[in-house]
Design the sequence.
């Protein structure tokens, strides 16, 4: 028998997505989570020696079902139930929306009632891969971000934010979020602040790197962006910041299981000899933090 090596966990996955086409993947589980699909993915993680997963959530209960089954595969699985977004902003394809603070509080109560481990908030747009230095939107008003994070904290939840760009990330840091996901196009000032506060940064380099050569977006945008993000990862680590391995598995060309290895390779290019020590510390932090 071949010994299974202990791998780092993946701190950012979407069990519902398949790395191929999000609409079809969601349609497959829209009526009801599919145990056959979920078990196949959990079993693959197990075979790779991955024992810790943190899901970004979905509106159809797939990540919660995965959490319920994960113990059978020796996997410690954390779920926010569903990601929460402000209506009119990014997140409608996978999350549940609110229009005002009372609607938001009702969603928090639901996360609590269905056993969510933490809160996932969408506070910015996406990288626009078709052109350099561009996001699909500016993101939520800083005041809304601060209020939303505070309300989640008041209920005893840690908060994971999907965030790109200086303005949303700074508002998130003001509010004391526990992790920043993606974090594209951040200034040196914001990066230094993230390091200083030791906020977990999960840069999801696979979502950029794995697109190279796909033909969907210009490699002339993707290659410099990956290199730039790797430089920033190196910078934050050099300031004593906290960098976590999270691939965004399920996103386009980011395949469950395999993506943890892809992400590890991208992070190693950035962090060199200190990679394992940095990732290890971040994983321990995530394990003790992203639960109620
Ligand atoms: Zn994600």
Sequence:
């Amino acid at each position: 028998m071949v010994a299974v090596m202990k791998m780092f966990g993946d701190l950012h996955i979407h069990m519902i997505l398949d790395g191929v086409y999000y609409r079809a993947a969601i349609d497959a589980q829209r009526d009801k989570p599919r145990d056959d699909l979920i078990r196949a993915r959990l079993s693959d993680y197990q075979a790779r020696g991955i024992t810790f997963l943190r899901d970004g959530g979905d509106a159809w209960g797939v990540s919660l079902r995965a959490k319920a089954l994960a113990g059978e595969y020796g996997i410690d699985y954390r779920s926010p139930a569903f990601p929460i977004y402000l209506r009119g902003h990014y997140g409608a394809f996978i999350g549940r929306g609110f229009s005002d603070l009372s609607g938001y509080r009702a969603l928090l109560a639901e996360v609590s009632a269905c056993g969510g481990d933490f809160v996932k908030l969408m506070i910015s747009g996406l990288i626009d891969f078709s052109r350099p230095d561009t996001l699909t939107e500016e993101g939520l008003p800083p005041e809304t971000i601060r209020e939303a994070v505070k309300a989640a904290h008041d209920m005893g939840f840690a908060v994971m934010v999907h965030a790109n760009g200086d303005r949303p990330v700074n508002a998130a840091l003001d509010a004391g979020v526990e992790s920043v996901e993606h974090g594209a196009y951040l200034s040196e000032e914001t990066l230094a602040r993230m390091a200083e506060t030791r906020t977990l940064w999960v840069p999801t380099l696979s979502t950029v790197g794995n697109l190279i050569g796909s033909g969907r977006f210009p490699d002339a945008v993707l290659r410099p962006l990956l290199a730039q993000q790797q430089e920033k990862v190196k910078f934050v680590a050099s300031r004593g910041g906290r960098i976590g391995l999270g691939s965004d598995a399920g996103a386009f060309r980011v395949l469950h299981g395999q993506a943890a290895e892809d992400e590890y390779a991208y992070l190693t290019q950035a962090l060199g000899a200190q990679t394992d020590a940095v990732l290890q510390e971040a994983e321990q932090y995530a394990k003790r933090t992203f639960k109620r």
Q: What stands out?
A: Residues 31 and 60 are 8 Å apart (CA to CA).
